[in-house]
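Q: what sequence does this backbone want?
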């Protein structure tokens, strides 16, 4: 599951609701969540999704799989994203 889906579900929104709030095509949300589409990290589409979700971090991090982060106290912010 991508972080995008996790954040959407945490708000209790359907894919259609997120698409409407972000002004993106509804099937596109499902394509991104399922990994069939990957927008560029700096794309307007991904920025709109991040803004709709209230995501203050890097919009590209919404494409990460849940659980791909490990805590690392020695790094700034304490989080390291694995490749």
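A:
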């Amino acid at each position: 599951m991508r972080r995008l889906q996790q954040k959407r579900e945490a708000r209790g929104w359907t894919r259609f609701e997120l698409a409407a709030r972000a002004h993106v095509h509804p099937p596109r949300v499902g394509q991104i969540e399922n990994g069939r589409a990957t927008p560029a990290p700096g794309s307007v589409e991904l920025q709109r999704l991040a803004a709709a979700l209230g995501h203050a971090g890097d919009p590209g991090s919404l494409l990460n799989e849940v659980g791909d982060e490990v805590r690392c106290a020695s790094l700034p912010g304490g989080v390291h994203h694995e490749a």
